[in-house]
Amino acid sequence: MEAPPLDRTQVHVWTVSLSAERAALAEFSTILTSDERARADRFRTPQLQRRFIVARAMLRRLLSTYLRVDASAVRLGYGEHGKPYVASALELCFNLSHADDMAVYAFAWRRDVGIDIEVTARDVDVEGVARHAFSLVECEALAALSPEARPAAFFRIWTRKEAYVKARGNGLGYPTRTFSVSHFARDDALLADECDARAQSGWRLLEIAAPDGFCAALAASGRDWSALRFDGRKLL
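Given the sequence above, the corresponding structure tokens read:
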């Protein structure tokens, strides 16, 4: 399997199912490092263990195809706030997110990227979470919607904020109440960032299509890029 050519003006987005038969799971385990296998063994349930193994193995497979090296040879490192990177190829930037049995990956050359996916069919204290983590603009936008429309808008805001924070590499250290995103279906969802007056001209943030029952968003630095989506089922 080979990944499509990755142009410097593109961000590649892969959607991958984390379901796997026992034989495939055993094969995926051989791709992982000893540290990753030990981490997998610490998960409390077989389901969580499977999701980690498949998600990490698919990451290694994708990275290996972009870098033209063996999957087991990819060396990963972690930034100050936990964002992963390829230790031997810093110019290839990537990010990943998974929810239940679905994972999404983003890849770009010399461009910071962040991606997030969330399950929408779950109970969430929309107003409570919004008061704690959303900006005043976002809270007011949610309050203006009907109760029926709020959950979908909440997850659009949530995934976009997560993707943006992950792209910036600041982790939980970035104050989520100081920037605002739109809940509308638009190509450029970042409205303002009090911590970075030039954020709107230096970043793009958009919703990406997700399977039914999920919501996803992508953020990347710069304005000169387009997103290309790929189905990861062919990689299994």
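The CA atoms of residues 92 and 109 lie 5 Å apart. Try to locate this feature in the token string yourself.
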